[in-house]
Structure formats: structure tokens, C-alpha cells
């Protein structure tokens, strides 16, 4: 099953451009804001995995931090 794309949510190019314009305007105003990244020590690996599974955080963080 293919993943949804922008084509599933817009009828034509004008609608796509209007949606893109609203998105970029919101970004310029500082919205939406990304969540602060969370980091875990190796000893907290089980907690980190539980957080990902519960969708309270996402994916790996920058390993240099």
C-alpha cells in the first residue's frame, strides 16, 4: 500500500500552492514549533525504547550531543 502524499490532499496545483503558502507563512511566524529533543544515557535504553513505542518521542537523536 503506498503512503499518502500531498496529492491525496489537494485537488489541483492552485490548491497545492495555497496550502504551501499557508504553511510557509505559519513557519515564518514561528508556528508550528518542533518539540525539544530528548536524549537518554545508555543506561536508559529501555526507557528510551518505551518512549518511542508510546510515541512520546521519535527516532534517534544526534549522537554527538
What does this structure look like?
The chain contains 2 helices and no strands. With about 60 residues, the protein is an all-alpha fold. It starts with 12 loop residues before the first helix and ends in a 12-residue tail after the last helix. The model has no long low-confidence stretch (mean pLDDT about 85).
**Average residue pLDDT:** 83
Secondary structural class: mainly alpha
What is the global morphology? elongated
| Count of separate DSSP helical elements | 2
N-to-C terminal Cα separation, in Å? 37 Å
The main pleated sheet reads as: none
SS strand fraction: under 5%
Question: Can you write the helix and strand succession as a string?
Answer: HH
The total of beta strands comes to: 0
How many whole angstroms does the radius of gyration measure? 18 Å
Low-confidence stretches: none
Short description:
This protein has 65 residues and is an all-alpha fold.
Topology summary:
Layout: H1 13-28, H2 45-53
What features would you highlight for this structure?
65 residues; mainly alpha; 0% strand
Amino acid at each position: 500500500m503506498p503512503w499518502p502524499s500531498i496529492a491525496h490532499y489537494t485537488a489541483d496545483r492552485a490548491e497545492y500552492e495555497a496550502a504551501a503558502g499557508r504553511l510557509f507563512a505559519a513557519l515564518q511566524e514561528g508556528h508550528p514549533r518542533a518539540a525539544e529533543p530528548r536524549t537518554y544515557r545508555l543506561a536508559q535504553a529501555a526507557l528510551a525504547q518505551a518512549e518511542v513505542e508510546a510515541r512520546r518521542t521519535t527516532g534517534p537523536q544526534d549522537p554527538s550531543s
